[in-house]
Fold this sequence. Notes:
The complex is a heterodimer of chains A (445) and B (350).
Chain A: H1 2-15, E1 19-27, H2 33-36, E2 37-45, E3 52-62, H3 64-71, E4 82-83, E5 89-95, E6 107-110, E7 121-125, E8 129-131, H4 138-142, H5 147-156, E9 166-169, H6 175-186, E10 190-195, H7 201-211, E11 215-218, H8 219-225, H9 233-240, E12 250-253, H10 259-270, E13 274-279, H11 285-295, E14 299-302, H12 303-315, E15 321-326, H13 330-338, E16 345-348, E17 357-359, H14 361-365, E18 370-373, H15 384-399, E19 408-412, H16 416-425, E20 430-434, H17 439-442
Parallel strand pairs in A: 9-10, 10-11, 12-13, 12-15, 13-14, 15-16, 16-18, 19-20
Antiparallel strand pairs in A: 1-2, 1-4, 3-5, 3-7, 3-20, 5-6, 6-8
Helix pairs in contact in A: 5-6, 9-10
Chain B: E1 21-29, H1 35-38, E2 39-47, E3 54-63, H2 66-73, E4 84-85, E5 91-97, E6 109-112, E7 123-127, E8 131-134, H3 140-144, H4 149-159, E9 168-171, H5 177-188, E10 192-197, H6 203-213, E11 217-220, H7 221-227, E12 234-239, H8 243-252, E13 258-261, E14 270-272, H9 274-279, E15 283-286, H10 289-294, H11 299-314, E16 323-326, H12 331-340, E17 345-349
Parallel strand pairs in B: 9-10, 9-12, 10-11, 12-13, 13-15, 16-17
Antiparallel strand pairs in B: 1-2, 1-4, 3-5, 3-7, 3-17, 5-6, 6-8
Amino acid sequence: MFLYGKFLENVKIGIRMTHIWSRCIQYEKHGPPNEVLSLHKSEISSEVSSNKVLVKWLASPINPLDINKIEGTYPWKKEFPIVGGSEGTGVIEKVGNNVHDLKPGDSVVSMGIGVPLWNEYCVVDNSQLMKIDSRLDLISAATLIINPPTAYAMLKDYVDLDAGDIVIQNAANSGVGRSVIQLAKIFGLKSINLIRDRPNVQELKNELRQLGADFVFTEEEFRNDATLIINPPTAYAMLKDYVDLDAGDIVIQNAANSGVGRSVIQLAKIFGLKSINLIRDRPNVQELKNELRQLGADFVFTEEEFRNDGKKFLTSLSKPIRLAINGVGDRSCLAISSALSAGGTLITYGGMSKKSHLISTSSFVFKNIKAVGIAAGWLLPQKPGKVQAMFDHIQKLCINGQLKPPPVETYEMEQFSKAINRALEGKHGKQVLLLHPDSKLKNKL
Amino acid sequence: MFSRTLLKGTYGIRNASRFVSTKTKHIVYEEYGDPPKVCNLKEALIDDIVKENEALVKFVAAPINPADINQIQGVYPVKPPLPGVGGNEGCGIIERVGKSVTYLKPGDLVIPSQSGLGTWRTSGIVEASKLYSIDKSVPVHFAATLNVNPPTAYRMLKDFGHLKPGDTVIQNAGNSAVGQYVIQIARIRGLKTVNVVRNRPTIDELKNELKSLGANEVFTEEEFAKESRSLKNVRLALNAVGGRSSLMLAKTLDDDGVMVTYGGMSKQPVQSPTGAFIFKDISLRGFWMSHWYTKKENAKERDAMFKDLCEWINAKEFAPPKVVERSLEQYEEALKMAMESSDAKQLFVM
Lengths: 445, 350
């Protein structure tokens, strides 16, 4: 009986060798995800020519960028209908005759955000897949490609951080944020983490501390406690990595009472540099000036005072000003960049004025100053060897339990609407769609 | 050609054959101010006593550049002592050299090796180190305008942006003297140029002219505001205008791109967007040809550069400079025209 049933099953499969049924979650136009998504079932060709592979997808998370793609606000275009999903994990079913690096049964993740993932099965090019360690658990695999590498690249590729250095971030309990916390701990760095306030925020703070966070503040707490923070990497990098400054050298900056500005003041004092600080005028400005002087500021001017008396003041200085730090733009940028001596450098880390940055022509032509920015961390490295090494490292950390995926809620495909609504509400961790029923076999959670 | 006249009484008959004087005409200014007003054409006798390290030069031709105007107005950083002779570039022929001058000889075609020489004159005795000899076969119009603009274009394309054939350079002031050399040198080196110019009634003619020099694209400032979004792989932007024009250039730069500022025709500060600094890691630099010349470590590069430029001139790779020839006597008119329009260069021919 059992054998006969198996035989029939095989015959059924035999007849349908070139086509299989696959459910998918897709949208036919842009719009609110809880309105435009629908569950479909269709027959797809399972033929795999040369470089193609048939994948059985097991799990794929709903990331913020997936919401944006569906809404139409993400810079990415494809023809409708579009199957959702940007990262995920699956198992190889069949390979084309020109595929030598993958075989049926291999566990894989998709590379690149354009693969139609919210699908039980689909045929993709083998170049769009990366083989993973089969010991990697389902949820870590499903959330492997976007968030951990972003955190990894930001911590490794932009600033030469030494053990004990401090990193500061917001959105600390997001997918990327949690990867940053854990990787920072693994790399021996300290992390300062900002989160939004919420009921029972203490629970979340404890959870992040258990992950490895050194300091956790809500956004409000941090605004009030900013003067306690000594080493944010932006200020540190600007003072260390752009100009060879000696003790006694002078640095000029605007936005002096901002988070970065205050760090610049304090670090400058620690490094033996003098700082000239510009702030916006306000009632009781004298109080703020005293506060900044107590932090270590050598000179504090309002923007107006510097415009009027700046020239005279600058001629009284005994050393050239070789570094200007700009977080404002517009005429404030013009004021501090004009104070630079020949060959000086202007570093821009922000644009609080929301206007463009003004620098005089003569500063460039006759004083040969350089204007640069401090690069942000959303450009991932393009070197393949390096990328593979990074993924190997990240997978090891996941298998060893040193790098944990974010807390997730799992949903079967038919429950996709509920998953989307939870994702849209936010503050519910990450929602992961379980696609082909075989995912239950892999999910050890 | 000297005129052999006796010096008045100072040196005696015995030495009369050695000490002769040359009559020179020069355009001098004794105070800073409006050039047509403060400049005067004066005649003088100069002693032909050429010291060891000096040379007697007969100036052949010298243009009026914007920097020359600024210098007379008193707003240029290079300020020769007053009273000063106008003009910072030009060409001349060596008449005589002092005993210890080995690298120049009579008959050599020379250009200034640095600014501040005072070239709007017929003759002068100058330190030989302030002169630089070039290929004699270079035609006068080229030689007289060889020191400032072609080298600025050459250096900016060489020293910034690590350009390879096929790369794109974008610039404003595309029809300025430097701008046109940028187009031509880029063409010779296999680089693409996208050029922004101010709109004008003769815009179609201008676009055709620049394209015939080798420009790949020519846009008015208004057209560029729309087209700029589709530009890719822009590694180098050259800015001589400032203000909104520089903002638009900076926005087109790709990752690691550089915008080099070499002039400020709008008299507005250079503008840069925040996003470009922070997300595309661009840098903004400046370039000043005069300053580059003063650095001794650039001597070899200078030789290589002038070799290239002279070869390209002789191979007719460059369109002849557009000049209006003037005698020194016409200085008032020439200065006025130089300050009003920049279509053709006013060139004193001595």
